[in-house]
Amino acid sequence: MTTTPAALDLSPAPGAVPLPRMILSQAAYEFRAVVRNGEQLLLTLIIPVVLLTLFSATSLLDLGSGRRVDFLAPGILALAVMSTAFTGQAIGTGFERRYGVLKRLGATPLPRGGLIAAKTLSVVAVEILQAVVVCAVALALGWHPHGDPVSVIVLLLLGTAAFSGFGLLMAGTLRAEATLAAANLVYILLLAVGGVVFPLDKFPGGVRDVLELLPVSALADGLRQVLRHGAAFPGKPLLVLAVWAVAGLALAARFFRWE
Fold first, then answer.
1. What domain of life does the UniProt record list for this protein's source (predicted)?
2. Helix orientation angle between 112-140 and 19-36, rounded to the nearest 10 degrees
């Protein structure tokens, strides 16, 4: 006796893609966009590597006692975080806002919180790539880091939060052209006076005390304390970064405009 196969149910079954999958898909797109963008690649990878190689291999700067690369490598890592989380994100998000990309993304099933999460994941992914490249070059130049890896991760995450907050604040309140100019100006200024490649002890005492409160200075100093001197959870840099992170994210949440 034969049986008739059950009829196939071909009726539509619409449904939203799970939120984690949407976030990962958007994050992957954001990451590819950064890697394929020549200007972004110059900012995030090429400039830090050139600075690390140039000042490690020459005596153009007086970096004090010890190996030059031991001073430079943590500062260049801090610069890499700033270039991605602040400068690159501010410029990219500013032009997305100008051209209505954020407005259109806001109309998709991906919620705004999911979009922010995707951008955050993309920033972290780019920073991981930067850290791998910078550390590989530094090791080739004779760098011998030591210290607590957990302390390094906490410093980098707090630095990312601080720079991301102010990058989004700038992108969400200024015109795209103004964001482009301001973000690059801040990048150059902090590169010059943030203790990244120029030691802060070369500045007068009062000026140095103020510069040490900058987020990039705190990040560079904290990384040096851990990777150069073996400190664990350096208190002052962590506190400075935490204050900047809370302030930046709170201001961005309050004043960011999507269009």
1. Bacteria
2. 50
The length of the chain, given as a count of residues: 259
How confident is the model over 187-242, as pLDDT tens digits? 999 999 999 988 888 888 889 999 999 999 999 999 999 999 999 999 999 999 99
**204's tokens:** 């007068």
Which residue reads 């011998």 in tokens? 144
Q: Phi/psi of residue 5, each to 5°?
A: -60, 145
CB atoms within 10 A of CB 185: 11
**Count of C-beta atoms within a 10 Å radius of residue 178:** 12
Confidence of residue 105 (pLDDT cuts 50, 70, 90): confident
pTM of the model: 0.88
The residue that leads in pLDDT, 244 or 9, is: 244
Q: Report the distance separating Cα 124 and Cα 48, nearest Å.
A: 17
Using CA of residue 64, residue 70, residue 73, residue 75, what is the dihedral sign?
negative
Half-sphere exposure of 251 (CA within 13 A, CB side): 19
Please name the residue that has the structure tokens 């990219």: 92
Place of tokens 């992108």: 171
